[in-house]
Each structure stands twice: as structure tokens, then as C-alpha cells.
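Lecture notes, part 5. Sequence design as translation. It can be helpful to think of inverse folding as translation between two languages: the language of shapes and the language of residues. The source text, in C-alpha cells, appears below.
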């Protein structure tokens, strides 16, 4: 089933994206500006294909062929992902009010969080549930937005989420984790992103747009919740550590220097690397190697003792730190 899900989602996403490029060019054309990393007008809207394909293929595999029944988490996450896809597509047509956009993101994240398979026992048992859920909701909203911030170079989202989602699927399959449908959605998303990647490689013929980055961010946030409940926070955060570090450190630097941190900019580590002389392929290669290492550490750490998981997390932090230091190194 896993191989079929991967192949079908790959082919479906590639064919649909290729067929719809003329439509996206007429409706969702992204014209470069001073803060853009691309230099020619390029259609966006790939997210309008990636998210539906992943949901449709995963649901058909588990509910159609395997005969399983969707649970509350499947219904709520599907609705939340589709809401963010539609809002992102609306934003791709013309910029939405930031407050309205944030309100919709909070509602979608809350919908997914409400039915997520979480265990508030252990060290969290001493905290009020409202406080725990409030912090988790803020974290999910932040991850949705940081994914949007980081989707600024060809293949960047593919490089982050393909290995991460494949790792999520492997962990849930190997350890018989909760929400088997969720694991298949992650695997189908990886397949759909690989199909989209054929059109997103430099020079890109198609971008994801907000219709893709917003639901990808929510699915990534949900993956952190699901893995965290099963394996602990270190394992849950490792596959996404580069995205979290780059976006969070960039935001902190802008706040500390008194800049208008809510405005669009080109100061992420990966954007600075391009300005300092790296080609897109050189950048993506470095990020891909780091993400594969992080996912390898995740697979090794899963099922280990908390001390061993912490050691793996420390290695991951060191790898990300070395990557970001290299990205902002002066080059001839």
C-alpha cells in the first residue's frame, strides 16, 4: 500500500500541475518584486494540487481499499488543511488582511488540535489543560507561518518536507503509532511534492504559493504533535529543526534590531546565502544533506531512552548550526 500511495500521488500531482500551468499562469502569476528571490514572472498555485492529491490518495488507500473508517482526527485535519489551502489561494490572488489571515490560521490549527491524539499525562499532568492547549496552538500557528516564510526558493519546501514526512510515515508504521491515516497522508504528501518538484526545480516553472505552504505548515505542525505524543519532543522536532531554527532566529534578530519584523524581507539564512554567492542548487544540496541527517537521527532516536534522544537532538542542533554558519559565510 505504501509504495502504491507514493507512486500514485507522485504521478497525479505531476500530471495535474503540468496540465494546470496555463490556468495558473493566467490566474496566479507571481510577479517578482524587491523582496522576491525569483527574477521572472512565474505561476503559483501548486498547493491547489499537492494538498488535495495527498488527501485523496491517502483516504482512498485506507478508507476505500483497506475498509477503515475515518475518525475525528481525520475529519478535522482534512477540513483544516482544505480551509488553509483555500485561504492561501485567496491570498495568492490578492493580499488578504493580516488579521483576518491570522484568525483563519488560528481556527484551522484549533480544529486540528481539538481532535489530535494527544496524551497530557506525564510531566504535562501538573499543568492546566487550557495552558497546554494554548501553548500548542501558538506553536502550531507559528509553524504554519514559518513554513510560509521559508518557502522562498525553488525546491526549498520539497527539500524540507519530503524527508520529514517520509520519516513520520516510517515511525508510525514501524512502531504501530496512532492515526495510521495520518501516516499515509504524510507519505502521500511526500509523493505529491516529488511530482511537483519536477516543475519547481530551477528555473522553476511553478511555485507552491500560499495555497501550498499554509497547509504544509499545518500538516508539519500536526506531525510534531503526533510524534511528540508517541516518542517525545526531541524526536518530534528533529526532522523540522532547520526550518524552525532559520525562521525563529531570523525573527529574533529582526525584533532585537528594531526592524518591522511583520513585513516581508530577504534576511533568512537561506536568502542571505543566495546573496552571498551560492546557487540555488548549491543551497538546496546543503539543506537536503542536513535534513537527511536530521531524519536519520530521528529514526535512530525513536524508541530510545530520553537521554539518548537528547543526545541525538544535540547532534541535530550542532548540524543545523554548522549549516547556518556555512550559509552566511562570505564567499568570493
Amino acid at each position: 500500500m505504501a509504495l502504491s500511495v507514493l507512486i500514485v500521488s507522485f504521478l497525479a500531482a505531476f500530471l495535474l500541475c503540468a496540465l494546470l500551468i496555463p490556468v495558473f499562469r493566467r490566474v496566479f502569476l507571481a510577479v517578482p518584486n524587491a523582496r522576491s528571490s525569483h527574477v521572472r514572472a512565474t505561476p503559483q498555485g501548486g498547493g491547489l494540487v499537492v494538498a488535495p492529491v495527498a488527501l485523496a490518495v491517502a483516504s482512498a488507500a485506507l478508507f476505500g481499499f483497506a475498509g477503515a473508517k475515518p475518525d475525528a482526527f481525520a475529519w478535522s485535519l482534512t477540513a483544516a488543511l482544505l480551509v488553509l489551502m483555500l485561504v492561501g489561494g485567496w491570498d495568492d490572488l490578492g493580499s488578504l488582511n493580516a488579521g483576518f489571515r491570522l484568525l483563519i490560521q488560528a481556527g484551522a490549527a484549533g480544529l486540528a488540535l481539538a481532535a489530535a491524539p494527544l496524551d497530557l499525562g506525564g510531566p504535562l499532568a501538573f499543568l492546566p489543560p487550557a495552558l497546554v492547549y494554548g501553548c500548542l496552538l501558538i506553536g502550531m500557528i507559528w509553524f504554519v507561518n514559518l513554513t510560509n516564510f521559508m518557502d522562498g526558493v525553488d525546491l526549498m519546501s520539497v527539500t524540507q518536507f519530503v524527508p520529514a514526512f517520509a520519516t513520520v510515515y516510517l515511525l508510525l508504521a514501524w512502531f504501530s503509532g496512532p492515526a495510521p491515516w495520518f501516516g499515509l497522508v504524510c507519505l502521500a504528501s511526500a509523493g505529491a511534492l516529488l511530482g511537483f518538484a519536477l516543475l519547481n526545480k530551477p528555473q522553476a516553472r511553478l511555485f507552491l504559493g500560499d495555497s501550498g505552504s499554509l497547509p504544509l505548515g499545518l500538516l508539519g505542525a500536526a506531525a510534531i504533535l503526533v510524534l511528540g505524543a508517541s516518542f517525545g519532543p526531541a524526536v518530534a522536532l528533529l526532522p523540522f529543526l532547520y526550518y524552525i531554527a532559520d525562521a525563529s532566529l531570523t525573527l529574533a534578530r529582526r525584533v532585537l534590531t528594531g526592524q518591522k519584523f511583520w513585513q516581508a524581507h530577504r534576511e533568512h539564512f537561506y536568502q542571505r546565502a543566495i546573496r552571498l554567492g551560492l546557487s540555488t542548487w548549491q543551497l538546496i544540496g546543503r539543506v537536503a544533506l542536513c535534513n537527511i541527517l536530521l531524519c536519520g537521527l530521528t529514526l535512530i532516536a525513536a524508541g530510545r531512552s530520553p537521554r539518548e534522544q537528547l543526545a541525538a537532538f544535540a547532534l541535530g542542533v550542532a548540524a543545523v548550526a554548522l549549516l547556518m554558519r556555512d550559509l552566511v559565510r562570505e564567499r568570493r
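The translated text above is only one of many valid answers, since several sequences can fold into similar shapes. Residues 2-27 form the longest helix (26 residues).
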